[in-house]
């Protein structure tokens, strides 16, 4: 239990350090962990924190943001940091959620 928290912390700090240091141990063979943007149905609601799928795809953001809008799509719940991005998702769901 304690171990998984340590692992999470390490992953977080490694990721943060990537842009500023050469990080010789950050093996090029290991791709950055994919940010989870599809949540279990009903697990996110307005006011929660989550990964806005539009920000993750468009801006490469990996920060959790306050959830302003949610949408159930193909059995998953997606969250958005504003209404405009929800509309964007709806207009191009394949781009954000995959085929
Ligand atoms: Zn967003």
Q: Helical segment tally?
A: 4
Overall strand count: 4
Small-molecule components bound: zinc ion
Please list the strands of the largest sheet in the order they lie side by side: 1-2
Strand percentage, roughly? 5-15%
Helix content: 25-40%
Largest sheet: 2 strands, antiparallel
Q: Given the C-alpha coordinates, what overall shape results?
A: globular
Mean pLDDT figure:
82
* Through-space gap between termini: 36 Å
Descriptive report:
Helix content is 37%, strand content 14%. The chain is an alpha+beta fold. It has a domain at 35-99. Zinc ion binds at residues 52, 54-55, 80-81, 85.
Provide a short characterization of the protein structure:
By secondary structure, this protein is an alpha+beta fold.
